[in-house]
Protein backbone atom coordinates (compact mmCIF):
# COMPACT_ATOMS: atom_id res chain seq x y z
CA UNK A 1 0.00 0.00 0.00
CA UNK A 2 1.35 3.43 -0.98
CA UNK A 3 1.93 5.92 1.84
CA UNK A 4 -0.28 9.04 1.74
CA UNK A 5 1.35 11.98 -0.04
CA UNK A 6 0.88 14.24 2.98
CA UNK A 7 3.53 12.27 4.88
CA UNK A 8 6.12 14.09 2.75
CA UNK A 9 5.08 17.42 4.29
CA UNK A 10 6.67 18.75 7.49
CA UNK A 11 5.30 17.80 10.90
CA UNK A 12 3.99 21.14 12.18
CA UNK A 13 3.52 19.77 15.71
CA UNK A 14 7.04 18.40 16.13
CA UNK A 15 9.13 19.51 19.05
CA UNK A 16 11.81 20.23 16.46
CA UNK A 17 9.70 23.22 15.37
CA UNK A 18 8.90 24.10 19.03
CA UNK A 19 5.54 22.34 19.04
CA UNK A 20 4.17 21.68 22.52
CA UNK A 21 1.38 19.80 24.28
CA UNK A 22 -0.04 22.57 26.43
CA UNK A 23 -2.85 20.67 28.16
CA UNK A 24 -4.27 17.21 28.74
CA UNK A 25 -7.21 16.38 30.95
CA UNK A 26 -5.38 13.27 32.19
CA UNK A 27 -1.85 11.84 31.90
CA UNK A 28 -1.64 9.49 34.84
CA UNK A 29 0.34 6.71 33.16
CA UNK A 30 2.43 8.56 30.56
CA UNK A 31 3.06 12.25 30.05
CA UNK A 32 1.45 14.26 27.28
CA UNK A 33 4.72 15.83 26.07
CA UNK A 34 5.71 12.53 24.46
CA UNK A 35 3.09 13.08 21.75
CA UNK A 36 5.28 15.56 19.84
CA UNK A 37 8.70 13.98 20.39
CA UNK A 38 10.40 13.80 16.96
CA UNK A 39 12.05 10.41 17.54
CA UNK A 40 10.14 7.15 16.92
CA UNK A 41 8.48 5.65 20.01
CA UNK A 42 10.68 3.29 22.02
CA UNK A 43 9.69 0.34 24.21
CA UNK A 44 11.40 -1.52 27.05
CA UNK A 45 9.62 -4.67 28.21
CA UNK A 46 11.14 -4.42 31.68
CA UNK A 47 10.52 -0.72 32.32
CA UNK A 48 7.94 -0.41 35.10
CA UNK A 49 7.29 2.44 37.51
CA UNK A 50 5.15 3.04 40.56
CA UNK A 51 2.06 3.59 38.36
CA UNK A 52 2.64 0.61 36.10
CA UNK A 53 4.24 -0.03 32.71
CA UNK A 54 6.21 2.95 31.40
CA UNK A 55 5.24 3.91 27.84
CA UNK A 56 6.87 6.37 25.44
CA UNK A 57 3.63 8.18 24.69
CA UNK A 58 0.59 9.74 26.32
CA UNK A 59 -1.61 7.39 28.36
CA UNK A 60 -4.63 8.14 30.49
CA UNK A 61 -6.20 6.05 33.25
CA UNK A 62 -9.14 3.70 32.70
CA UNK A 63 -12.34 5.74 32.70
CA UNK A 64 -15.07 4.77 35.17
CA UNK A 65 -17.39 7.62 34.23
CA UNK A 66 -18.88 8.96 30.97
CA UNK A 67 -16.79 11.21 28.75
CA UNK A 68 -13.50 11.04 26.90
CA UNK A 69 -9.91 12.22 27.22
CA UNK A 70 -8.15 14.86 25.16
CA UNK A 71 -4.88 16.74 24.72
CA UNK A 72 -4.25 20.18 23.20
CA UNK A 73 -1.20 20.74 20.98
CA UNK A 74 0.24 24.11 20.05
CA UNK A 75 1.73 23.81 16.58
CA UNK A 76 5.36 24.85 16.34
CA UNK A 77 4.48 26.69 13.14
CA UNK A 78 0.86 27.53 12.25
CA UNK A 79 -0.28 26.10 8.99
CA UNK A 80 -2.74 24.31 6.73
CA UNK A 81 -3.12 20.71 7.92
CA UNK A 82 -3.16 18.08 5.16
CA UNK A 83 -3.09 14.97 7.29
CA UNK A 84 -2.48 13.55 10.75
CA UNK A 85 -0.88 10.40 12.09
CA UNK A 86 -2.27 9.03 15.34
CA UNK A 87 0.42 6.53 16.23
CA UNK A 88 -0.49 3.88 18.81
CA UNK A 89 2.93 2.15 18.65
CA UNK A 90 3.40 -0.37 21.49
CA UNK A 91 -0.12 0.24 22.80
CA UNK A 92 -1.93 -3.07 22.27
CA UNK A 93 -4.48 -3.78 25.01
CA UNK A 94 -4.63 -0.16 26.10
CA UNK A 95 -5.04 1.96 22.95
CA UNK A 96 -8.16 4.09 22.35
CA UNK A 97 -10.57 2.46 19.88
CA UNK A 98 -11.62 5.83 18.44
CA UNK A 99 -10.25 9.35 18.04
CA UNK A 100 -11.10 12.71 16.49
CA UNK A 101 -9.23 15.98 15.93
CA UNK A 102 -10.39 19.57 16.31
CA UNK A 103 -8.50 22.76 15.43
CA UNK A 104 -8.54 26.47 16.19
CA UNK A 105 -6.66 29.59 15.11
CA UNK A 106 -5.81 32.07 17.84
CA UNK A 107 -3.58 35.11 18.14
CA UNK A 108 -0.85 35.50 20.71
CA UNK A 109 -0.19 32.92 23.40
CA UNK A 110 -3.48 31.74 24.97
CA UNK A 111 -3.46 30.01 28.34
CA UNK A 112 -4.90 26.49 28.75
CA UNK A 113 -8.07 28.00 30.24
CA UNK A 114 -8.49 30.26 27.21
CA UNK A 115 -7.96 27.33 24.87
CA UNK A 116 -10.55 25.23 26.69
CA UNK A 117 -13.09 27.97 25.93
CA UNK A 118 -11.92 28.50 22.31
CA UNK A 119 -14.26 27.96 19.31
CA UNK A 120 -12.85 24.61 18.16
CA UNK A 121 -13.70 23.30 14.70
CA UNK A 122 -13.64 19.60 13.72
CA UNK A 123 -11.08 18.70 11.04
CA UNK A 124 -11.21 14.91 11.53
CA UNK A 125 -14.46 13.26 12.55
CA UNK A 126 -14.48 10.33 14.94
CA UNK A 127 -12.51 7.48 13.36
CA UNK A 128 -11.55 3.97 14.42
CA UNK A 129 -7.96 3.29 15.48
CA UNK A 130 -5.87 0.14 15.36
CA UNK A 131 -3.45 -0.73 18.13
CA UNK A 132 0.33 -0.64 17.69
CA UNK A 133 -0.19 1.15 14.36
CA UNK A 134 0.65 4.50 12.75
CA UNK A 135 -2.97 5.37 11.85
CA UNK A 136 -2.95 7.90 8.98
CA UNK A 137 -5.83 10.20 8.08
CA UNK A 138 -6.05 12.86 5.37
CA UNK A 139 -7.52 16.22 6.36
CA UNK A 140 -9.63 18.32 3.99
CA UNK A 141 -9.36 21.89 5.24
CA UNK A 142 -7.86 25.03 3.70
CA UNK A 143 -7.84 27.06 6.91
CA UNK A 144 -4.75 28.08 8.85
CA UNK A 145 -4.62 26.61 12.36
CA UNK A 146 -2.46 27.33 15.42
CA UNK A 147 -3.65 24.60 17.83
CA UNK A 148 -5.08 21.07 17.55
CA UNK A 149 -7.08 19.05 20.04
CA UNK A 150 -6.70 15.28 19.95
CA UNK A 151 -9.77 13.52 21.38
CA UNK A 152 -9.56 9.84 22.31
CA UNK A 153 -12.63 7.72 23.09
CA UNK A 154 -12.93 6.85 25.85
CA UNK A 155 -9.34 6.62 27.16
CA UNK A 156 -6.02 4.89 26.51
CA UNK A 157 -2.59 5.52 25.06
CA UNK A 158 -1.24 7.27 21.97
CA UNK A 159 2.50 7.25 21.28
CA UNK A 160 2.79 10.15 18.82
CA UNK A 161 0.66 12.72 17.03
CA UNK A 162 2.09 13.89 13.72
CA UNK A 163 0.47 16.90 12.04
CA UNK A 164 1.65 17.12 8.44
CA UNK A 165 0.92 20.30 6.54
CA UNK A 166 2.09 23.51 4.92
CA UNK A 167 3.61 26.16 7.20
CA UNK A 168 1.78 29.51 7.28
CA UNK A 169 3.71 31.75 9.70
CA UNK A 170 2.47 35.22 10.60
CA UNK A 171 3.84 37.54 7.87
CA UNK A 172 4.07 40.36 10.43
CA UNK A 173 7.19 38.65 11.79
CA UNK A 174 8.83 38.11 8.39
CA UNK A 175 10.25 41.63 8.22
CA UNK A 176 13.79 42.86 7.82
CA UNK A 177 16.58 40.37 7.21
CA UNK A 178 15.40 36.82 7.91
CA UNK A 179 16.44 33.30 7.02
CA UNK A 180 14.50 32.86 3.80
CA UNK A 181 15.27 29.12 3.80
CA UNK A 182 13.90 28.45 7.30
CA UNK A 183 11.17 25.84 7.56
CA UNK A 184 9.58 27.83 10.37
CA UNK A 185 9.26 30.80 7.99
CA UNK A 186 7.44 28.73 5.38
CA UNK A 187 10.33 27.42 3.26
CA UNK A 188 10.55 23.74 2.29
CA UNK A 189 12.59 21.23 0.34
CA UNK A 190 11.09 20.53 -3.10
CA UNK A 191 13.75 18.30 -4.67
CA UNK A 192 16.67 16.17 -3.52
CA UNK A 193 18.96 13.80 -5.37
CA UNK A 194 19.55 11.40 -2.48
CA UNK A 195 18.30 11.07 1.11
CA UNK A 196 19.78 7.69 1.99
CA UNK A 197 20.82 8.37 5.60
CA UNK A 198 18.70 11.34 6.67
CA UNK A 199 16.16 13.88 5.47
CA UNK A 200 17.28 16.96 3.53
CA UNK A 201 14.59 18.90 5.43
CA UNK A 202 16.93 18.76 8.42
CA UNK A 203 19.15 21.44 6.89
CA UNK A 204 16.37 24.05 7.15
CA UNK A 205 15.28 23.09 10.69
CA UNK A 206 15.54 25.61 13.55
CA UNK A 207 18.66 25.88 15.66
CA UNK A 208 22.04 24.28 15.32
CA UNK A 209 22.46 20.58 14.62
CA UNK A 210 23.46 18.70 17.78
CA UNK A 211 25.00 15.73 15.97
CA UNK A 212 25.44 14.25 12.50
CA UNK A 213 22.00 12.62 12.55
CA UNK A 214 20.32 16.05 12.60
CA UNK A 215 21.69 17.02 9.19
CA UNK A 216 21.28 15.74 5.63
CA UNK A 217 23.54 12.86 4.64
CA UNK A 218 23.44 11.12 1.28
CA UNK A 219 24.97 7.83 0.17
CA UNK A 220 28.51 7.64 -1.18
CA UNK A 221 28.55 8.35 -4.92
CA UNK A 222 30.33 5.98 -7.28
CA UNK A 223 29.05 7.32 -10.61
CA UNK A 224 30.98 10.52 -11.12
CA UNK A 225 27.99 12.85 -10.53
CA UNK A 226 27.08 15.01 -7.54
CA UNK A 227 24.21 15.42 -5.09
CA UNK A 228 21.92 18.40 -4.64
CA UNK A 229 18.92 19.76 -2.76
CA UNK A 230 16.45 22.45 -3.91
CA UNK A 231 14.73 24.69 -1.36
CA UNK A 232 11.65 26.80 -2.04
CA UNK A 233 12.21 29.96 -0.02
CA UNK A 234 9.62 31.44 2.33
CA UNK A 235 8.85 33.91 -0.43
CA UNK A 236 10.59 35.81 -3.20
CA UNK A 237 13.46 37.68 -1.61
CA UNK A 238 16.74 39.53 -1.99
CA UNK A 239 19.58 37.35 -0.66
CA UNK A 240 22.33 39.09 1.36
CA UNK A 241 24.44 36.29 2.79
CA UNK A 242 24.32 32.51 3.20
CA UNK A 243 25.69 29.87 5.53
CA UNK A 244 26.66 26.32 4.58
CA UNK A 245 27.31 24.39 7.79
CA UNK A 246 29.11 21.03 7.89
CA UNK A 247 29.15 20.76 11.71
CA UNK A 248 29.62 17.17 12.93
CA UNK A 249 30.39 15.92 9.43
CA UNK A 250 34.06 15.09 9.88
CA UNK A 251 35.04 12.28 7.52
CA UNK A 252 31.98 12.64 5.33
CA UNK A 253 31.62 16.35 4.57
CA UNK A 254 31.41 17.39 0.90
CA UNK A 255 34.68 18.36 -0.72
CA UNK A 256 33.06 21.36 -2.43
CA UNK A 257 29.69 23.10 -2.63
CA UNK A 258 27.93 25.53 -4.96
CA UNK A 259 24.75 27.57 -4.35
CA UNK A 260 22.57 28.97 -7.14
CA UNK A 261 19.16 30.65 -7.14
CA UNK A 262 16.28 31.22 -9.52
CA UNK A 263 13.64 33.99 -9.71
CA UNK A 264 9.93 33.47 -9.15
CA UNK A 265 8.08 32.20 -12.23
CA UNK A 266 11.11 30.61 -13.88
CA UNK A 267 11.05 26.87 -14.50
CA UNK A 268 13.46 24.94 -12.30
CA UNK A 269 14.48 22.96 -15.38
CA UNK A 270 15.63 26.14 -17.19
CA UNK A 271 19.38 26.07 -16.54
CA UNK A 272 19.82 29.53 -18.08
CA UNK A 273 17.55 31.13 -15.46
CA UNK A 274 19.70 30.15 -12.47
CA UNK A 275 21.87 32.83 -10.83
CA UNK A 276 25.14 31.92 -9.13
CA UNK A 277 25.26 32.91 -5.46
CA UNK A 278 28.29 30.97 -4.25
CA UNK A 279 30.61 29.51 -6.91
CA UNK A 280 31.93 26.00 -6.45
CA UNK A 281 34.01 26.38 -3.31
CA UNK A 282 36.05 23.97 -1.18
CA UNK A 283 34.46 23.14 2.19
CA UNK A 284 36.05 22.19 5.47
CA UNK A 285 34.68 19.39 7.63
CA UNK A 286 32.85 20.31 10.86
CA UNK A 287 32.75 24.01 9.99
CA UNK A 288 30.23 26.84 9.54
CA UNK A 289 31.00 28.54 6.23
CA UNK A 290 29.54 32.03 5.66
CA UNK A 291 29.46 33.84 2.33
CA UNK A 292 28.40 37.33 1.30
CA UNK A 293 26.05 37.31 -1.71
CA UNK A 294 25.37 40.02 -4.27
CA UNK A 295 22.33 38.79 -6.21
CA UNK A 296 21.01 41.27 -8.77
CA UNK A 297 17.46 39.86 -8.75
CA UNK A 298 15.07 38.54 -6.08
CA UNK A 299 14.96 34.75 -5.87
CA UNK A 300 12.28 32.15 -5.11
CA UNK A 301 14.31 28.91 -4.99
CA UNK A 302 17.91 28.01 -4.22
CA UNK A 303 19.81 24.88 -5.15
CA UNK A 304 22.73 23.59 -3.11
CA UNK A 305 25.07 21.28 -5.02
CA UNK A 306 27.59 19.23 -3.04
CA UNK A 307 30.56 17.59 -4.75
CA UNK A 308 30.63 14.73 -5.12
CA UNK A 309 28.50 13.85 -2.07
CA UNK A 310 28.53 14.25 1.71
CA UNK A 311 26.65 15.67 4.66
CA UNK A 312 25.34 19.16 5.39
CA UNK A 313 24.15 20.19 8.86
CA UNK A 314 22.37 23.45 8.00
CA UNK A 315 21.73 25.82 5.12
CA UNK A 316 20.84 29.42 5.94
CA UNK A 317 19.83 31.93 3.25
CA UNK A 318 19.56 35.36 4.82
CA UNK A 319 17.74 38.12 3.02
CA UNK A 320 14.65 40.31 2.75
CA UNK A 321 11.28 39.43 1.30
CA UNK A 322 10.05 41.56 -1.58
CA UNK A 323 7.10 43.78 -0.75
CA UNK A 324 4.54 41.57 -2.56
CA UNK A 325 5.90 38.44 -0.84
CA UNK A 326 5.75 40.08 2.60
CA UNK A 327 2.03 40.76 2.16
CA UNK A 328 1.06 37.14 1.54
UniProtKB/TrEMBL annotation:
Residues 19-167, 186-321 form the Allantoicase domain. Gene3D superfamilies: Galactose-binding domain-like (2.60.120.260). It is an enzyme of class 3 (hydrolase). GO terms for molecular function: allantoicase activity. Its EC number is 3.5.3.4. Pathway: Nitrogen metabolism; (S)-allantoin degradation; (S)-ureidoglycolate from allantoate (aminidohydrolase route): step 1/1. Keywords: Hydrolase, Purine metabolism. Pfam families: Allantoicase (PF03561). It catalyses: allantoate + H2O = (S)-ureidoglycolate + urea. HAMAP family: Allantoicase. Belongs to the allantoicase family. This is Probable allantoicase. The lineage of its organism: Bacteria, Bacillati, Actinomycetota, Actinomycetes, Mycobacteriales. The gene is alc.
Amino acid sequence: MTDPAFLQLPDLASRTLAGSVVYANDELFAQRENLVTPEPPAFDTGDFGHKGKVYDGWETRRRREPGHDFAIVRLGVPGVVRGVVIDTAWFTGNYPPFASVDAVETEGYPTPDQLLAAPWQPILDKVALAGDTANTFAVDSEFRWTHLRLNIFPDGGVARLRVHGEPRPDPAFLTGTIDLAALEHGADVVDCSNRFYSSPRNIIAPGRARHMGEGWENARRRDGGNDHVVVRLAGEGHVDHVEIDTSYFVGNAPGWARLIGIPDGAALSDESAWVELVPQTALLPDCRHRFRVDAAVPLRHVRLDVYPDGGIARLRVHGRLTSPAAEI
